[in-house]
Amino acid sequence: MTTEQKTTTRRPRSPKPVPAAEKCDACDGSGETTTTVRVGRKRREIAATQNGLCPTCLGTGTA
User: What separation, in Å, do the N-terminal and C-terminal C-alpha atoms of the chain show?
Assistant: First the structure.
């Protein structure tokens, strides 16, 4: 009388779907923000802009 045993190997898991990352509101997902350049002691604005890292998402583009 032989008894058949079930296999003891594990079945591979199906991967869970990764949720889509939300874009940052401040930089629209680019990771950079544009600010106007200020000069002088009174901090007047001139007609130039500069780019920098987004302070909200720190350059990743995701919130």
Answer: 64
User: Please, is 54 exposed, middle or buried when counting C-beta atoms within 10 Å of its C-beta (0-12, 13-18, 19+)?
Assistant: buried
pTM of structure: 0.51
* Residue 49 binned pLDDT confidence (cut-offs 50, 70, 90): very high
Which segments of 1-63 are extended strands (E)? 32-39, 44-53
Region of residue 25 (phi > 0: left; psi between -120 and 50: alpha; otherwise: beta): alpha
Residue 63 CA to residue 58 CA, distance in Å, equals 10
pLDDT at 1 over 70: no
